[in-house]
Every structure is written in C-alpha cells, then in structure tokens.
Amino acid sequence: MEKHKTQFEQADYQLILNKLITILNNEQCDEIIKYAVNQDPDDTGTFGFDQMINLINQLTGKENALTTHELGTLARHYGVRPSKEINLEILLGIAQQTLRRKAFEDFSSLMNACRQQDADKTGEMDRHAIRRICLAHHLPLPDDMLNSLMNCLVNQNNLIQYEQFINQLNWKNYEIKELSIQQSLDYIENMNIDWLPISKGDMPKSIHLSKKSKIDKINYKQLINDLFMKDLFHSSID
C-alpha cells in the first residue's frame, strides 16, 4: 500500500511539473533566479514555503494558478527536512549550553569518581557505570540526551573513555562555539526533547513523543533546475 502511495505522489509531482513547464518561457529564467537568490542571502539553497508559492505564482499568473493540493505536492517533493542523524558537535554544544545555564561546574568530581572506579587504570568504563556516576552527581542533562552522547562515544567493547567524555561536556575549559538558534531548533526537534523550560531556567525535559516535522524549507535550486530542465546554478544539489 505504501509503495502505491509513493508511486501516486511521484506521478502527481511529475504532472504538476509538466504543467508548469508548458507555461514557462526562457525570458522568465533570470527573473525567477534573481527572486530566489534574493530570498536566500546566506546561500543555503533553500527558502520558505511562502516564497515557493510566490515564485510559482510569478510563473503561472492568476489564470494558471496551482491548487493548494498541487502546491503541497511540490513542497513535499522539494522539501528539506532536518537530518535524523546524530551530529555529535551540535549535540555537545546543546549539552554544554544546558550545563552552563544550570551553572553546573563540578566536572572534577565526575572525573575523580570515574578514576576511583577505574581500578585497573584503563581510562575506560562501562557506559552504565558512567551513567550512574552522572546521576549520582546530579548532572542536569535529560536521560535521552545523555544516552545519545554515550552512543556516539562508546567503542566496540561498549566502553567509553571517560576523560574524553567529561572534558567534552566541560563548557568552562573546552567550550564549543555557540550554536545558531536555527541549528538548535532544527536539531532538537528530532531529539524529542522539550527545550522550552531551559529558557526559563528550569530543567529540560524529555517528552518521548514523535513529532512529524513540517516542511518549511524548500530546495529551490533543484525546483528551478527541474523547471528549466538544466543546471542553472552550476553546483551540486544536496
């Protein structure tokens, strides 16, 4: 059933694209590119859904305007969603921001506790032992973030180099560059964490809910290339 659904959506997208192509003329090309680039000052290759509607309306005029369903189909095809993969640098940056806002500075106690349990002085510990130490010292990170961090750092023997782990959380001595608001918003949406309490100085909470991400970014370069059937930006499209 899902396979048929995908086939129908692909067919719908092709029909809509063909409909637009029949309306286009080459004289509109420069105007369309100029509009799109002006909406994207940071050259991300994307712009918003509303900008896509404006661009399409410039092409079609009122007499050939697309329906809401047709616009939605194009948006789904050319939409860009945040990556679901764990980006360790961003995750560590968010963790450091959380610890800084909660004024947690006792990294030396975490380190000493790990060293005490590391009787053989290997520099490595079981992830569950590290988690227990973090909880015992009231490290103010939600459980799923802590687990995600350890998932990124655990080795094939299910052990973690605890000095590296603690130092990467240490915002005082090993601060990671500040993240942009958009980076944080895009990333934590996929972490299923409620970060609003942080802005109020409260503890972040895991909400354990899957949220279907809306499409608010459109790959306009691919859309325009497909409309004019050639690479107009002379660059690779992600």
TrEMBL record:
InterPro entries: DUF5580_M (IPR049246), EF-hand-dom_pair (IPR011992). Residues 105-170 form the DUF5580 domain. It comes from Schistosoma mattheei. It comes from the Eukaryota. This is DUF5580 domain-containing protein. The lineage of its organism: Eukaryota, Metazoa, Spiralia, Lophotrochozoa, Platyhelminthes. Signal peptide: none annotated. It holds the Pfam family DUF5580_M.
